[in-house]
Design a protein that fits this description.
By secondary structure, the chain is α+β, with helices and mostly antiparallel strands. It contains 1 helix and 6 strands. The chain folds into 2 domains: 2-76, no CATH class; 83-138.
């Protein structure tokens, strides 16, 4: 269902507004310039006083302003003829959304497992970011458990010198 109200309006006008104007009436007399057979003056086809204005007459222009205002609404209602296709389309869209969400979850799980594995290996090797580093928090939540591995190393034991069988050489007497 679609419902659309509307209001439109229009104005047309001519500026400047003139309801009447003075229309000039020109002198079109042609009484002179030629003669008839009896010798009387007649017109020769050329105006006697060209361009002379005899008078002006008031003429209505017919000019008017127009105003228009329209108010109404438009409504559209459509109904599918085959609801089965619409339902299939909705199911396909929902399945596609579910698939995209699962793919996103799978990628997130892959990322977290890779982070866990790499951080765990680095922690076992004694490698980590400094606590003030912005990258320290990347591995901050990784815990390595059940690791009883001691890194290979050597100790030097100093030679005590010549051995003695005398208790006095070993230190003072033990008292209780």
């Amino acid at each position: 269902m679609n419902f659309t109200p509307y209001v439109t309006g229009a104005v047309s006008a001519q500026k400047p507004y003139q309801d009447y104007y003075n229309d000039p009436v020109y002198d079109v007399t042609d009484n002179f310039g030629a003669f008839d057979a009896e010798g009387n003056a007649i017109g020769d086809g050329v105006l006697d006083n060209p361009g002379d204005i005899l008078f002006t007459k008031r003429t209505r222009t017919g000019q008017k302003d127009n105003y228009n205002l329209s108010v109404g609404f438009s409504a559209t209602w459509s109904r599918p003829l085959d609801k089965k296709l619409q339902d299939q389309c909705k199911k396909a869209a929902a399945a596609n959304i579910d698939m995209m969400q699962q793919l996103t979850a799978n990628k997130r799980l892959d990322f977290e497992i890779a982070r866990l594995k790499n951080c765990g290996n680095l922690i076992k090797e004694g490698i980590s970011f400094h606590p003030r580093s912005p990258y320290y928090k990347i591995c901050a939540d990784v815990v390595v458990q059940n690791v009883n591995v001691i890194a290979p190393h050597r100790h030097t034991i100093p030679n005590p010198g010549p051995t003695s069988k005398n208790a006095k050489d070993l230190g003072g007497p033990i008292t209780n």
